[in-house]
Write a structure and sequence with these properties.
The chain has 280 residues and is α/β, with parallel strands linked by helices. It has a domain at 19-123 and 192-230 and 237-275: Rossmann fold. It has eleven helices and ten strands. It has helices spanning 19-23, 69-75, 106-112, 127-137, 144-154, 158-161, 174-187, 204-217, 230-236, 259-262, 269-275; strands at 29-40, 43-54, 58-62, 86-94, 97-98, 113-116, 192-196, 222-226, 239-245, 251-258. The strands form two sheets. It has a six-stranded mixed sheet, sandwiched between helices. The chain has a four-stranded antiparallel sheet with strand order 2-1-4-5, with helices on one face. It is globular, with a radius of gyration of 19 Å. The protein starts with 18 loop residues before the first helix and ends in a 5-residue tail after the last helix.
């Protein structure tokens, strides 16, 4: 199991930061990595990443395809454990405890650090059962109806589905399905929500709804989002992490900091070249 004791760690961003970032130095951190490497067999996909993710803030991971953004995201709740050849070296800390320690239950970890995937993936069940399923298997049996309603309200979906909870989750539009998946993640009461390109399969209107929802959710949750859309990162995140790919194809951290600063006055030429389209 994982300790509930919260801890604050070092701030891994550039020295030049915005006033908003300076005022946030007293904040706690939801999760930290230290000299973390991620491998698939002999291939190192991510190397030497040291980061701190602020509690109840939105952090965007950006960078070119293949630089390890999704791999990094999946190390944060041990989703890569499901890949037989995957392994992690270094530390990933949640409440100060290394989540890769033998004493940590990965199932409980994934309840507390939930994930929303690139394509909406509702279960072949009713809307109600989609939301209630995770809660049930995690032993949350009291007031399921209230839990389902609260989760759907938090996901900004309740008013659209309250009269058809018995219908299939597949009956919803793509954007509604993604919000249903977010409601399903919320229902098990996580602390962190990981999102792997959650709007890449959606139209602009549905994308905007998800971005607005993410802003509402950060009141209660820490959100870490992978996106290829730099405009989305600039619009929707408080902090941005830029990863690049080295000659050995391993992803590495170039720069991390307040989004407003990174997009207007990046500290590294690599970052400026990427966000201005001169990359490569």
């Amino acid at each position: 199991m994982i300790s509930d004791a919260r801890t604050a760690g070092g701030v891994m961003i550039e020295q030049t930061v915005s006033q908003d970032a300076e005022e946030s130095y007293g904040e706690t951190f939801a999760m930290e990595t230290e000299r973390m490497d991620a491998y698939y067999g002999n291939f190192r996909a991510v190397k030497d990443v040291t980061l701190s993710f602020r509690d109840r803030r939105i952090t965007a991971l950006i960078g070119p395809s293949g630089c390890g953004k999704s791999t990094l995201l999946r190390t944060l709740n041990r989703m890569n454990d499901l890949v037989p050849t995957a392994r992690v070296e270094g530390e990933v800390r949640f409440h100060g405890q290394n989540i890769y320690a033998d004493s940590v239950d990965p199932v409980e970890l994934r309840r507390r650090v939930g994930m929303v995937f690139q394509k909406p993936n509702p279960f072949p069940k009713s809307i109600y059962q989609n939301v209630a399923w995770g809660a049930r298997i995690n032993g949350m049996k009291d007031d399921l109806e209230g839990l389902v309603e609260r989760s759907l309200r938090q996901a900004a979906l309740w008013d659209e589905v309250k009269d058809k909870l018995d219908e299939s989750g597949y009956s919803l539009s793509g954007g509604q399905q993604q919000r249903l998946c977010i409601a399903r993640a919320i229902a098990v009461k996580p602390e962190i929500i990981l999102m792997d390109e959650p709007t890449s399969a959606l139209d602009p209107v549905a994308t905007l709804r998800i971005e607005e929802l993410i802003q509402d959710l950060k009141v209660n949750y820490t959100i870490i989002i992978v996106t290829h859309n730099m405009q989305q990162a600039a619009r929707a995140s408080d902090y941005t992490v830029f990863l690049n790919m080295d000659q050995d194809r391993a992803g590495y951290l170039v720069e991390a900091g307040a989004t407003s600063m990174l997009f207007t006055r990046p500290a590294k030429i690599e970052t400026e070249d990427y966000i201005t389209g001169r990359f490569g």
